[in-house]
């Protein structure tokens, strides 16, 4: 049974940084791993994804130039480094994984971790 477990969310002031971590278990070697987020009253949106060998990375408009995705395949882990956070980044962040690219329809989802950015 595949599980994706996120951690690293929390509350931070505007301009601060957070690093989200997602550990996959039950399966290894996902071609695609990445992050989505959902703010209250809004649809879930794509944040970032990367292929297994990090040869291809993709970012949604919200994270370009401020966020960085990375993977540690030995640990079945994907990270999201978020810098220069603004209150508009407040959302539940979900880890996602899939066996194809792009990560438009993930096969697996984590339970989410809350990120709250105060002004």
Task: Give a written overview of the molecule.
The chain is mainly β and 119 residues long. It is built from no helices and 11 strands. Strands 2, 4, 5, 6, 9, 10 and 11 form a 7-stranded mixed sheet that branches. Strands 1-3-8-7 form a 4-stranded antiparallel sheet, with no helix packed on it. Strand 5 and strand 6 form a beta hairpin. The radius of gyration is 13 Å and the shape is globular. The termini are far apart. The mean pLDDT is 95.
> Strand percentage, roughly?
over 45%
Mean pLDDT: 95
The helix count comes to: 0
Helical amount among residues, as a percent range?
A: under 10%
The end-to-end distance, rounded to whole angstroms, is 40 Å
Radius of gyration: 13 Å
Subunit arrangement of the protein: single chain
What are the salient characteristics of this protein?
119 residues, mainly beta, seven-stranded mixed β-sheet, globular
List the helices and strands and how they pair.
Layout: E1 3-7, E2 10-13, E3 18-25, E4 32-38, E5 45-51, E6 57-59, E7 67-72, E8 77-82, E9 91-98, E10 108-109, E11 113-118
Parallel strand pairs: 2-11
Antiparallel strand pairs: 1-3, 3-8, 4-5, 4-9, 5-6, 7-8, 9-10, 9-11
Task: Provide a concise account of the structure shown.
With 119 residues, this protein is mainly β.
């Amino acid at each position: 049974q595949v599980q994706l477990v996120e951690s690293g969310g929390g509350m931070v002031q505007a301009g601060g940084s957070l690093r989200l971590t997602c550990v996959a278990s039950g399966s290894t070697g996902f071609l695609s791993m990445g992050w989505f987020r959902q703010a209250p009253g809004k649809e879930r949106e794509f944040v970032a994804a990367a292929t297994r060998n990090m040869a291809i990375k993709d970012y949604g408009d919200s994270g370009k130039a401020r966020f960085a995705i990375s993977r540690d395949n030995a640990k079945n882990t994907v990270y999201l480094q978020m810098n220069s956070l603004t209150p508009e980044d407040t959302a539940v962040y979900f880890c996602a994984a899939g066996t194809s690219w792009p990560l438009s329809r993930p096969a697996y989802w984590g339970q989410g971790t809350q990120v709250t950015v105060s002004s």
